[in-house]
Amino acid sequence: MTTLDPGLIVRACVLLRAGGVVAYPTDTFYGLAADPRNPGAVARLFAIKGRAAGQAIPLIAVDEAQAMGAAEFDERSLRLARALWPGPLSLVLPASGVICKGAKASDGTVAVRVPASDAARAIARAFGFCITATSANLSGEAPLTSAASATGALGGVVDLVLDGGETPGGEPSTLVDARAETPRLVRAGAIAWDRVLRSIE
């Protein structure tokens, strides 16, 4: 992947603070960034994707400290985060009070991770809070690995497409709920389940 132009990152953050939606590269696919604290921005994100309301929107953070501003960590989840971040591991956790209702699952949780993508982390760092990370494609369609494909699919409806070159693609992030005594694999992904289990032994 190529490095994002700092000026474009600043522009993206201005748009996000105004309720905009921006496509950007992650360590798996291109994602859609919006402010998860802004109900209007989240509603617009759902409309752009054609996604049914009531589904949680995944979040990415620049680091553990920023993730803690969006979700409440238990000891086991924190151990997993420290073992496998940055990387494609998303943790299901209770959302903090600043996350708007539309971005949460029906049980009040969100999924958050720190990606192994300098570009994605740079946006979250500049924005100063977690950003959404739902894939930059219409619901039901394949996720996208280039700015050109994101522009082709959504260029008329998102406010900006940040070109970071090709993303690795492959499997999505592994989604894990480690809050109970027995951790639960919610969605298989790029990090093998046995590696997750070894990380919390």
Descriptive account of the structure:
- With 201 residues, the chain is α/β, with parallel strands linked by helices.
- It has one domain: DHBP synthase, CATH 3.90.870.
- Helix content is 31%, strand content 17%.
- The protein is built from seven helices and ten strands.
- A six-stranded mixed sheet has the order 6-3-5-4-9-10, sandwiched between helices. Strands 7-2-1-8 form a four-stranded mixed sheet.
- A hairpin with a 6-residue loop joins strand 9 and strand 10 (184-187).
- The mean pLDDT is 94.
CATH structural architecture: Alpha-Beta Complex
Runs with pLDDT <50, length 5+?
A: none
Mean pLDDT: 94
Whole-number tally of structural domains: 1
Number of strands: 10
CATH topology (level 3) name: DHBP synthase
Strand content: 15-25%
Helicity, as a percent range: 25-40%
Structural class: alpha/beta
Inertia-based shape = globular
The major β-sheet equals: 6 strands, mixed
Q: What's the CATH first level?
A: Alpha Beta
Please provide a brief summary of the model.
The chain contains 7 helices and 10 strands. The chain is of the alpha/beta class.
Give the SSE layout.
Elements: H1 6-17, E1 22-25, E2 30-33, H2 39-49, E3 59-60, H3 64-68, H4 75-84, E4 89-94, E5 109-113, H5 118-127, E6 131-132, E7 134-135, H6 147-154, E8 160-161, E9 174-177, E10 184-187, H7 193-199
Parallel strand pairs: 1-8, 3-5, 4-9
Antiparallel strand pairs: 1-2, 2-7, 3-6, 4-5, 9-10
Helix pairs in contact: 1-5
Task: Summarize this structure as a short list of keywords or feature phrases.
201 residues, 4-stranded mixed β-sheet, 7 helices, 17% strand, DHBP synthase, alpha/beta, 6-stranded mixed β-sheet
